[in-house]
Write a structure and sequence with these properties.
The protein has about 120 residues and is α/β, with parallel strands linked by helices. The chain contains four helices and four strands; from the N terminus they run H-E-H-E-H-E-H-E. Strand 1, helix 2 (about 35-40) and strand 2 form a beta-alpha-beta unit. The protein binds thiamine diphosphate (TPP). Thiamine diphosphate binds near residues 33, 87, 88 and 92.
Length: about 120
């Protein structure tokens, strides 16, 4: 287990996330420079459990998480949805927060704040 430092490291954040998330959680990742580290801890455990982009165009993560949470709500499956979004990527489609509140979506958004764009 990585040590808790101030500020925390990506290893600490992602290893903690891997421990606390539900086993069948749906994860969405848009963490640019930290995606490699995230994937060491948060694995695709079953079909439809891990979403990210192949080409790294920013702006996908937050609305994708909203869509996945909406699908869970509408189908009554209620799998936990967790989005890990860099503080840079977060700014590309911040309107998705409004959609999340309008539809009363249940999901967790973790903004990884390293103050790098
Ligand atoms: C639409 C789009 N614009 C610009 C970029 C260029 N770009 C790649 S990474 C990045 C910064 C991402 O910052 P953040 O999400 O905080 O990730 P981290 O700092 O952890 O790398 C930018 C602007 C991109 N990939 N896609």
């Amino acid at each position: 287990m990585p040590k808790a430092t101030t500020p925390i490291t990506p290893d600490f954040l992602f290893s903690t996330l891997a421990q606390v998330k539900h086993e069948n959680a749906i994860s969405v990742a848009e963490t640019a420079s930290n995606t490699r580290i995230l994937k060491q801890y948060v694995k695709a455990t079953s079909p439809g459990s891990f979403f990210t982009t192949a080409a790294s165009g920013l702006g996908f993560g937050l609305p994708a998480a909203a869509g996945l949470a909406l699908a869970q709500q509408r189908t009554g499956q209620n799998r936990q949805v967790i989005a890990v979004i860099g503080d840079g990527a977060f700014q590309y489609s911040i309107q998705a927060l409004y959609t999340m509140t309008q539809h009363h979506l249940s999901l967790t958004v973790i903004v990884a704040r390293n103050e790098e764009q």
